[in-house]
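Now for one record:
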Amino acid sequence: MKVLGIAIAAGAIQYGALRSDPATSPIPGAPERLGKADGLTGTDLIADTYRRIKQDIHGLSPDLVILVATRKNGQWAYRQAADRASLEALVQLACHEEGIRCEEWKTEKIGKLIGAPATAIDSVDLAQLGLSARPRYWAGRGDAFAAALAALNETNGQADQ
């Protein structure tokens, strides 16, 4: 099974892609992150971002995409909230068009499934991810990898029942 975890932080999409065959490990060549294209604004920026998200998801062809829900519940600046909501919607649309299941999970659920505090899901043991060292952009990607691991753990738990 292949799972793509996605965390949105600082206006960028952070990817964490894992597979469970034969053991949990990162997917070689998987995208790391996707930021805004320089020089584009408005609908050009939205269309370009959508195309790049869809290309990343299509190329990876995960069985499941997990979006990490924000822990921020108030004090949003409009632009910050709008940017995040747009990225979430673009990810969901790309998944829908690719026929890939996409779910948004709260950090409490992710933390419970990986044995980490909800406020620090990126503190997951790297060995559980099949990693010996933190990959680039860990500050954002750690949550994405945690989400992918949580989905694999949930799937394995359901298979054991």
Summary: The radius of gyration is 15 Å. The mean pLDDT is 94. The first strand starts at residue 2 and ends at 9.
